[in-house]
Amino acid sequence: MQIKILHKQGKSLRAIACEVGCSVNTVRKYLVEDSVPAFKVRLPRVTKLAAFEAYLRQRETSAAPDWIPATVLWREIREMGFTGCERTVRNFVATLRPAPAPDPVVRFETAPGDQMQADWIEFRRRKSSSLFAFVATLGYSRASYVEFVSDMRLETLLACHANCFEWFGGVPRRTLYDNMKTVVIERNAYGPRQHRFQSGFLDFARHYGFQPQLCQPYRAKTKGKVERFNGYLRRSFYVPLTARLKAAGLELDVTTANTEVWRWLREVADGRVHGTTQRQPGEQLRVERPVLQSLPPIYPALNKPATAASGQELRERFHDWPSPVQHPLSVYEQFVGVRT
């Protein structure tokens, strides 16, 4: 009856359908047949994701107060039999957490081989089981290196740099830091941008041929490339791994962290499409590597760094990493092994 009244009032079929909550075809059929339309109760549609929603909620809850990216969760449930697309998972996960704040940072691009940005991340600080990560990102390719350690002493920092340059297959011309105490003693000690660097670090930099630079005070975002990767590392690698270990009553240690992160760098981070460059960092590294500076002999004070993995360990994990062209293959083999 209501449909007929609305129709006599001159309302369109679409307006009537919106008001009474049915389709336009139902309104048209009722007006033509002069009968009361029968509305069928629609059963809730079972989606492909329905069987995995509880798992997704549990994973995000176990990671609190952090959160696990949708891409990570999609890979996990795909191994469990999910056949839907990543967007489906992304849309569902978005309902579980607040929307992120917009990023106002203006980014500056650098030429291949020109700049590397380095930083420390503190994951856990304890007397007996601290966990930190040295992170370095090449400015052009966005390829990154990560090494977990138990302290942030100068000798550890130098060893991580040496391993990092081996990983990339060369040395950039400039490296950018914030206020690392093991890098800089006093800003502007000899004039504007004439800083007093730690002597041991400066000698290491001369040996490898790179120029250390500092980001602007209170403006860590001037090294935003490594800062953004730090967040990606935490969300996409650290939080999912520690949440899984926590559920099993285990805690992440340095050895396990490095075993997993080097595999993750190779299989996930370097193969992703970077949000800014829209390129894969691993592929862009092939462009950047030939213009990196050649690796010198190992820094004498390092000898065999305690933080470096053995050549055999890395041969087992990264035997098919492409060989660099800047230094003898025998040097590179110690770090990543021989291609078979």
TrEMBL record:
<dbReference type="InterPro" id="IPR001584">
    <property type="entry name" value="Integrase_cat-core"/>
</dbReference>
<dbReference type="Pfam" id="PF13936">
    <property type="entry name" value="HTH_38"/>
</dbReference>
<dbReference type="InterPro" id="IPR036397">
    <property type="entry name" value="RNaseH_sf"/>
</dbReference>
<dbReference type="GO" id="GO:0015074">
    <property type="term" value="P:DNA integration"/>
</dbReference>
<protein>
    <submittedName>
        <fullName>Transposase</fullName>
    </submittedName>
</protein>
<feature type="domain" description="Integrase catalytic">
    <location>
        <begin position="108"/>
        <end position="289"/>
    </location>
</feature>
<dbReference type="Pfam" id="PF00665">
    <property type="entry name" value="rve"/>
</dbReference>
<dbReference type="InterPro" id="IPR025246">
    <property type="entry name" value="IS30-like_HTH"/>
</dbReference>
<dbReference type="GO" id="GO:0003676">
    <property type="term" value="F:nucleic acid binding"/>
</dbReference>
<dbReference type="InterPro" id="IPR012337">
    <property type="entry name" value="RNaseH-like_sf"/>
</dbReference>
